[in-house]
């Protein structure tokens, strides 16, 4: 497919120095990312890295019995497929599109070559990896120590940060799979947030009505993750 969007809509691509961006542009492939698309499966060798521009991708850990839980979300702030340049080539997690949109992808061999140049691209990707690891660690802590409605607030805020609107197309069953809890628990938590006037949920769509209210209701985990991304990956990154 021909390039029909602006690569700078992805923050990592926008942060590339001009020389590196010029080298990447002919190799970047614009792709649609429909809801539910699996970008990679557990244990499989990755063929591409993905740079979402309007899609959100959920990184899930899947158990032997099929149960799953989300360990991180990736949107226009980053990329999917860090195991490629970290040397592992595969990962035990699964990457699934949780909010439909689009983005760019780059072949695995090209990404490895860019990282191995040991220049500004490597430093940028390592900073992003540190931020992603923080999100994974904070998610584990949050799921263990905080209430379900706090977890739902955190999840909604992280998703909103990666979208241009205040509306998410998301069923309660899908949210339950992401958070690794029963659907009934998500229903109860969503009802509490709706009763408080923070969200409106209808027909598989969640509309956030009061973002400041969500930020006040959630635990500290959201702020910890956001601060780390802002610290390591500011909008105008000098690399």
Automatic annotation (TrEMBL):
GO terms for molecular function: DNA binding; DNA-binding transcription factor activity. GO terms for cellular component: cytosol. PROSITE patterns: HTH_CRP_2. Residues 146-212 form the HTH crp-type domain. Signal peptide: none annotated. It comes from the Bacteria. SUPFAM superfamilies: cAMP-binding domain-like (SSF51206), Winged helix' DNA-binding domain (SSF46785). Keywords: DNA-binding, Transcription, Transcription regulation. PANTHER family: CRP FAMILY TRANSCRIPTIONAL REGULATORY PROTEIN (PTHR24567), HTH-TYPE TRANSCRIPTIONAL REGULATOR ARCR (PTHR24567:SF74). This is CRP-like cAMP-binding protein. The lineage of its organism: Bacteria, Pseudomonadati, Pseudomonadota, Betaproteobacteria, Burkholderiales.
């Amino acid at each position: 497919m021909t390039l029909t969007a602006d690569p700078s809509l992805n923050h990592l691509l926008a942060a590339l120095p001009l020389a590196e961006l010029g080298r990447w542009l002919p190799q970047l492939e614009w792709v649609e990312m429909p809801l539910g698309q699996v970008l990679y499966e557990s244990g499989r060798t990755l063929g591409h890295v993905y740079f979402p521009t309007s899609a959100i991708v959920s990184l899930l850990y899947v158990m032997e019995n099929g149960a799953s839980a989300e360990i991180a979300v990736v949107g226009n702030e980053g990329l999917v497929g860090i195991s490629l340049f970290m040397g592992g080539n595969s990962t035990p997690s699964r990457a699934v599109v949780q909010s439909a949109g689009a983005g760019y992808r780059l072949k695995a061999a090209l990404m490895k070559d860019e990282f191995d140049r040991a220049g500004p691209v490597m430093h940028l990707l390592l900073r992003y990896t540190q931020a992603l690891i923080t999100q994974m660690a904070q998610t584990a802590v949050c799921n263990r120590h905080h209430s379900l409605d706090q977890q739902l607030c955190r999840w909604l805020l992280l998703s909103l940060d990666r979208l241009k609107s205040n509306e998410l197309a998301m069923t309660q069953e899908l949210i339950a799979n992401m958070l690794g809890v029963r659907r009934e628990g998500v229903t109860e938590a969503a009802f509490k947030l709706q009763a408080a006037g923070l969200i409106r949920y209808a027909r598989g769509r969640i509309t956030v009505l009061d973002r400041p209210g969500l930020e006040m209701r959630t635990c500290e985990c959201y702020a910890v993750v956001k601060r780390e991304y802002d610290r390591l990956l500011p909008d105008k990154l000098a690399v």
